[in-house]
Amino acid sequence: MSKYRKNPNPIPVPTPVTKPFWDATREHRLLLQRCGKGHVFYYPRTHCPECLSVEWEWFEASGRGRLYSYTVARRAQGPEFAEDVPYIIAAITLEEGPRMTSLLVEADPDNVAIDGAVEVAWDDVSPDISMPYFRPLG
Ligand SMILES: [Zn+2]
User: Which of 92, 111, 119, 133 reaches 20 to 30 Å from 98, CA-CA?
Assistant: First the structure.
């Protein structure tokens, strides 16, 4: 049961590449990938986007970051989002470096602070998937 959305669809369908990421969300752990040269990347993929290495590992991120940018959706992008407007689509720069697009929740759409500190706010949208949304910190 989603805490933040009236209708949590569409729910992600894991692929062989993204399955470890989504499995960890069930335990409210945010995973990123890091290659042997130390490049950290998100979204999940088969190779490092910096050096194309296929030798990388998953590691757990802090779940903290800063709001890089955002937009307020006042008109739904699809019927699944109709009951959620207005909602805040956010670009978060994670402490570890990668930028993640998500929703900013527990925030006033008319009072959002660029570069404000945020932390992950897990939303259990199905028995198998939790969405990593973000909320203002403090
Ligand atoms: Zn790399």
Answer: 111
pTM: predicted TM-score of the whole model, two decimal places: 0.94
pLDDT tens string 80-94: 999 999 999 999 999
Q: Which domain holds residue 41?
A: 19-136
Does residue 2 fall inside a structural domain? no
Compute the distance from residue 49 Cα to the ligand 1 centre, in Å: 7
What are the residues whose beta carbons fall under 8 Å from the beta carbon of 38, sequence distance 6 or more? none
Residue 127 domain flag = yes
Ligand 1 mean position to 63 CA, how many Å? Answer: 22
* Distance from Cα 42 to the centre of ligand 1, integer Å: 12
In three-state secondary structure terms, 119 is strand
Q: How many A from CA of 54 to the centre of ligand 1?
A: 8
Residue type, 113: A
Helix, strand and coil content of the chain, in percent to the nearest 5, comes to 10, 35, 55
Within a domain: residue 13? no
Q: 112: helix, coil or strand?
A: coil
How many domains does the chain contain in total?
A: 1
